[in-house]
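Two proteins, back to back. First:
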Amino acid sequence: MNKRKKYDWFSIDPIYVWHIVRKGALLKTFPNGYLDKEISRILIRSLVLDELHLKREEILSINEKFLSNYCLGGLRKFFDCKIYLLLMYCFPEYNLNEWEFKKSGNKLWENLEIRKKYVLFVAKKENINLNDIADLKRFSSKLFIEKYKGSQALKHAGGLFELIKPVIPKDFKEWEIFKINIWTNEKAKEAMLWLAEEKLNIQKPYPNITAKKFYDNNLGGLLCKFFDNSPKKATLFLNSL
């Protein structure tokens, strides 16, 4: 009786073993314990660069079905089952970003560090100086949504200012950069104390603050919308804090 020849698969070139698995005759799956992160990199790079000659944009479209078609679906387990982590690991030279992948998923944006990385990416692309208020005003929801597919990033951050705030080096206030359409009570408290104590250097009991002071400090909207354009009402509110 002929005995089936035994192979020391761990001593054989990974690409050769992979081609044997793809043929499916001698070996239908990779041996237990054979695969790891480094072998994943070797196989993916061989497929994408040497065999298929894919470009950067095509790499971003790789999905689970694609990997399974080439007997590489199991590689995902080394990367938290996230294909974008696998591909970012395999192709560091392409500077791939999580949000560029079609199948990255909306939960991606729950991660603060990824949102920060995303804003820094946009800032670099748009040549926005994060230390300059005038430059920061170039950020807009429209820019993120229409040019950088950032609707979910905005949603998970809680708004435009909340999205960019973690990467701004200086303690700029929202009203210094953007027009605020809806003034909440808490936001009005913060703005009034900032205006009085930081910008005007006055202490309680606060004297009347003129309308000009509001407009000079980008708080004209607060005066109009929250205090019915009444500096007296605004000062009474401030002294009640």
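And the second protein:
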Amino acid sequence: SKPLTLIVACAENRVIGRDGRLPFDIPEDKAWFHDKTAGQTVLLGRICFETWPKVLADGRSPVVITSNQALASGRVRVAPNVSAALAIAQTLPGEIMICGGQRIYEETLPLADRLLLTLVHAEVPGDTFFPEWRHLPWRETWRQEGSDVNYRYTFLQLDRQQ
């Protein structure tokens, strides 16, 4: 089966969202996210799907985890839960990239082979969180520091130790 990659930007206090939106606006991170997910199968919850206007651009194949079958159309697949979504994703082209939100990250982190993490070096208020990942057996295979006028951040690639 294909490996699973979680891709996420989170603050030091693990915040990933506030009121259904990202809690920070970092152009370099947005570009990184779009570049890494282009042409891939993206697995995400309904809110993430509805708040990502360009999800169908650049050849992505979305699998949305929702009970709302009406969202299925064209390239958009719908699944009632994570395990059904993963089964569909295995049949689609490209890599499998898990794009959130909180509940989907919580269910898939234990299964993940790789974490593409943008760690934002700030504590920000929010209502959705990335699960604690630091205790798991990751090996850092790549990193790049970045900053803009508002934030310092580190792009990390963490691979699960076999």
